[in-house]
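Researcher: Go.
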Amino acid sequence: MDRSASADSTSTGPNPDLLVCAALTAVWLLIVWFVGVHGEFPLNDDWAYSIPTKHLVETGRLERLPWTWTPILSHVAIGAVFAHLFGFSLVTMRMVGVVSGWVGMIGAYVLARRVGITRPKAVIATGISAWNPVYINLSFTYMLDVPITAMLTWSLVCLSIAAPPGNEGHVAAAQSALRQRLAWAGALLLALAATASRQTGVALIVAVAAAMGLSHLRRLWHLGAALALVAVLLWIDKVVAAGLFGHGDRGASAGIVFILGYLRDKAIFQILGYNTASVLFYLGLFAAPVVVMLVRWNDDLARQLLVPSVLLGSATLWALPKLGWSLLPAGFNVVWETGVGPLMIEPMRPTNPLRQSTWALITLISLCAVYYALLSVTVACFRAYPQLRRSVFWITLLVFPPVYLAPHLVRIPCFDRYLLPLLPVCAVLLLAMPGQLTAAAPRRLWLAATVLGLGMLFGVLGTRDYLQRSRAAWALVAQPLSAGVPPEDIDGGFEYRGFYRFEGPHERTRIEVREDYSQLERFILSFHARIDGYRPIAQRSYLRWIPFGRETITLHERLGAAP
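Model: Structure:
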């Protein structure tokens, strides 16, 4: 744990933390400039949130699509504010993600500094939270994940003010009772706002209540109150889904019934195992820059933890094929074999640019990193138990991840993007938790920064590829649409089908992809220049960075189709 976070807090001149935040902002703006936000098209499945937002802006009525399980209340409210200020468009909705990404990035840095992490290491902690490929990619969409991560991160910042960590090297300034109450209110309101977007945000409320009860056993009523709050929220969601949205079978309570159905199935163990492996993959992959700083050969304990971590990682890698589970990338949604950003043009996809052996090596490194992180946190819990057991803040950080992951582990799919809210917590636990291993000397920061930079580069270049591919695809489908072809006669991929499936909040038509080309729509997109039964009528190419070269998307028309 770092002990010099406040060493220069009394220095004169500009606040160094503000300068660091300005530098982080400059990096973020550079990423936004390089990737670009232009293009009137949906990304991933953010059409499921942009359509209700547009409906709210135009009619004043909020209606959730029956396609989604999440409440989306606060998310759509933020989107409506942006639409009111700048006018509704899919680019405006994309800017919600860009701004939320910046807010979450600054929140991760503030949280790291609040718990006493020095500035250079706080930047690394910020990087694993906000510069990983999943976070960067989703920041250029109107998806829920980045805004929720920003809300929960700032909720933890408020919690660090309301219940200071009290770790060595960080002495909280005396604060008034009013400031503390405001901090508690901020933490609760931000957690509730995250819950109003996706139900799993309530995990932070449960974790705080559990921490208050465990740190002061006479206050176990806090946990009971939190569980009662969860029940009330589920009931409200059921009522809101049935009344406001008109389909109560898609609320959170229905989702719990859906999950309980899995629990009665013997396949639950296969699902649980596969999802757990996916979680371990990505937590290790994203936390690797911090783990690099913890592994030190001149520290006996750090060296001793390395051996079991490598053995466990190797054993897991060996067992995965035996169990029929895949290596990285798993839990598909954002990170794919071909870059980042889901490949939504089906059924043809670009060739995998990385060999299987390369993915096996990446998987092994991720597994060894996550096992090392888990072991170091476990050791820290034993070493600093007397101090931790009285700290609401640290117990919250330890309880939050398992509570948050529980519903995700027992359902399909467990997407990689679901892990984003855990990354600021992981960074703080690994770098500032009492009893934690001491991070390496400053020269090791360069190695951590290199590992972080490689992931960031992959994320930025892959996200640019994703948007360039989408721009090319939507420019092609615009041609038949502008000629008056009905949307249902065109197969432009998942994002296209979702966007044109609904008229306002109501389902208009089901546009599906089938494997038999003879049954496909009149126009289809493909990465292949020629398809049996079709003739190419238009092409668009774009510069692809991963792997480097030009890629072409072709619009095909079925032979013999009526004009």
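Model: Strands lie at 335-336, 339-340, 490-491, 502-503, 506-507, 523-526, 534-544, 549-558.
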